[in-house]
Amino acid sequence: MSGVLALTGCSSSDDDDSGSSAAAAQDKADAAAAKQKSQAAITITPKDGADHVATSGDIKVQVKRGTLASVSLTAADSGKTVAGELSADKTSWEPVDELSEATKYQLTAIAKDSEGRDETRNTTFTTLSAANTVYGIFTPEDGSTVGVGMPVSINFTKPVANRAEVEKGITVTSSSGQEVVGHWFNDSRLDLRPQEYWKSGSQVTLKLRLKGVEASEGVYGAQSKDVSFTVGRSQVSTVDVATKQMKVMRDGKLLRTIPISAGSPENPTYNGEMVISQKFEETRMNGDTVGFEGEYDIPDVPHAMRLSTSGTFIHGNYWGRGVFGNTNTSHGCVGLEDVKGAGDPNTAGAWFYSQSMIGDVVKVVNSPDKTIAPDNGLNGWNMSWADWQAGSAL
């Protein structure tokens, strides 16, 4: 009779006990390790391995459930250390010096939790190079007070291909609640304005959030900035070339009527709404710079205010005799009676200069010339609202 062979599993009861003991030992070891692990949690901006990091404003170390014991930021190639500032509660750190362009940096942060246990984090990143950075040069200036016609105008240091992405990073808001829309005149200039002139007394804020925005392939924005300005009283002056008179309106009321001399029939003044963009108590005007070679060179034009990029000014005139209110004689500018040296405050030129500010509007009508181009100066008001909106990338 054949015997029956019983097959059993390969493990025994002793083996089971051994496995349970090993697991228990591992759990105990894990618990001990966890008990020794620091509870401090360090966050470093930018992330490890980041490229195209701005040279200022983008680097920060923060810690939760602990305090920072030390932070070291050094250039990988030179070993130069970047100075930083620790917050009063020792939970955040930022560099105080601007970093170098196109440089690889190494950052090491050490924090301690409430039990004195250390936590260490390391990050390596590379900053933008000048060739890969674009900035927006803006007007008006932060903290300034301007006239109701002043747009926000931004000229970029490099051409912008990704206009929509850049425009998303730019907002302009007003306490008046007016809707503000951007218009690209070209790939380097974006102006923003409301449909009508700003309301007097408005507070306007420009927010640039362009850091890390890819403006064109391989070219990134490097700005995060807030700019605020105040809109002053409303002053709109209308120059009637036919009657040779200018009516200065302040907050809807006639302030003064001034005789003027505009452009001659051969060199007429542009029609249209023009915004004062610069003021000079005295300035040199040389025809060679604006296409009138050899026709004039006046070293001391008094009380001059720029109306266009191409050279249109409204200014004092001391060399014209008997022309104001009678004859249009200029090369396209609007002239007001004045004296040499700009020293007499009682002249029409001096008075209008003293009453005007950057952003005021000078409107020219009844000239035989065409309407000024909207991008010739800060003169986007010479464009319908529909056309203006069509120039937005959004």
From TrEMBL:
Pathway: Glycan biosynthesis; Cell wall biogenesis; peptidoglycan biosynthesis. It comes from Wenjunlia vitaminophila (Streptomyces vitaminophilus). CDD domains: LDT_IgD_like_2, YkuD_like. One of its GO terms (biological process) is peptidoglycan-protein cross-linking. The active site is at H315 (proton donor/acceptor), C333 (nucleophile). Residues 19-41 have a biased composition (Low complexity). This is L,D-TPase catalytic domain-containing protein. Gene3D superfamilies: 2.60.40.3710, 2.60.40.3780, L,D-transpeptidase catalytic domain-like. Residues 235-365 form the L,D-TPase catalytic domain. Residues 1-53 are annotated as: Disordered. GO terms for cellular component: extracellular region. GO terms for molecular function: acyltransferase activity; peptidoglycan L,D-transpeptidase activity. Keywords: Acyltransferase, Cell membrane, Cell shape, Cell wall biogenesis/degradation, Lipoprotein, Membrane, Palmitate, Peptidoglycan synthesis, Signal, Transferase. SUPFAM superfamilies: L,D-transpeptidase catalytic domain-like.
